[in-house]
Design a protein that fits this description.
By secondary structure, the chain is mainly alpha-helical. It is built from 13 helices and no strands. It has two domains: about 140 residues, TerB-like (Orthogonal Bundle), CATH 1.10.3680; about 70 residues, Helix Hairpins, CATH 1.10.287.110. α3 packs across α6, α4 runs antiparallel to α5 and α7 runs parallel beside α9. The radius of gyration is 32 Å and the shape is globular. InterPro entries: DjlA_DnaK_co-chaperone, DjlA_N, DnaJ_domain, J_dom_sf, TerB-like.
Length: about 270
């Protein structure tokens, strides 16, 4: 019992000594600024950046180019038909998008981005209204950019030379949500409708070889290779501002349809 009393006295004496030192030596006390700094450090250490856990897939999906990819998907898949020209247009545009994202961020590899874009294109589940409002949000004040997107989607829908009712409906919705002026939309729409209302001229086999820049008698693999190369050469660039003043109808659509018609002729020719 006496030992416990002695220990208690010693503990009280040490505490009193430390407390007295604290009172008489203000410099030894932690300053308010230090306390606040220590508190901030603890808060910083415990802080979780909401963007840190966001995956590359989510970042790309929510970006302007990711939303564009989703809108392309909606138009391309709405009629259940995916013709060769449509496939090539989508492939080339996704490659353009992947290249653009690669240039914007050194942390991404093009092949990795391309795989993410194809996944977005194949598995888009959001409604057109949600996607279009999201695109409108990231393109505020960029009316010509929106206009070019709608024009491109019209071209994509017409890749098989006809505009299905479902394709027309979804493009009309997109144009409305993007607040495209009626006169601008009607002008584009009428140009496409007028072009595809004309009867396509019959392309001979010899002319088809000439259009596809292929020697007569070449293998079908060579025909396909040149077809893809020419589609790549003439497909519209909708990602850069330099092309916003150019009409897709005037600069790409007619030539691409000629290339596609020639390819279809030779495809049938090689089957026989």
């Amino acid at each position: 019992m006496e030992i416990l009393i002695i220990v208690a006295i010693i503990v009280v004496a040490i505490a009193f000594y430390n407390f007295r030192d604290y009172l008489y030596n203000p410099s030894s006390r932690p300053k308010i600024e230090e306390i606040e700094t220590q508190s901030q450090v603890r808060e910083y250490e415990n802080y979780e950046d909401p963007y840190k856990s966001t995956s590359k897939e989510d970042k790309i999906k929510r970006s302007e180019l990711g939303i564009l990819t989703s809108l392309m998907s909606k138009v391309a898949h709405i009629d259940g038909d995916f013709c060769p020209l449509e496939k090539e247009l989508v492939r080339n545009t996704l490659e353009d998008i992947a290249q653009q994202i690669t240039l914007q961020s050194a942390t991404y590899q093009k092949e990795e981005i391309l795989a993410i874009l194809y996944d977005i294109f194949k598995n888009t589940t959001e409604e057109v209204e949600e996607l279009t409002y999201a695109y409108a949000e990231v393109t505020k004040g960029q009316y010509k950019r929106r206009l070019k997107l709608v024009e491109y989607l019209l071209m994509l829908a017409y890749a098989d030379s006809k505009l299905e009712a479902k394709e027309q409906e979804v493009i009309l919705d997109i144009a409305a949500y993007l607040e495209i002026e009626n006169d601008d939309f009607n002008k584009m729409y009428d140009e496409f409708a007028e072009f595809y209302a004309k009867e396509s001229s019959i392309v001979s086999v010899d002319r088809a070889y000439e259009i596809l820049e292929t020697q007569k008698g070449a293998s079908f693999e060579e025909v396909k290779k040149n077809y893809k190369r020419l589609v790549r050469e003439y497909h519209p660039d909708i990602l850069h501002h330099k092309g916003l003043e150019q009409s897709i109808m005037e600069n790409a659509n007619a030539k691409l349809q000629e290339i596609n018609a020639a390819y279809e002729v030779l495809k049938e020719y090689y089957k026989n």
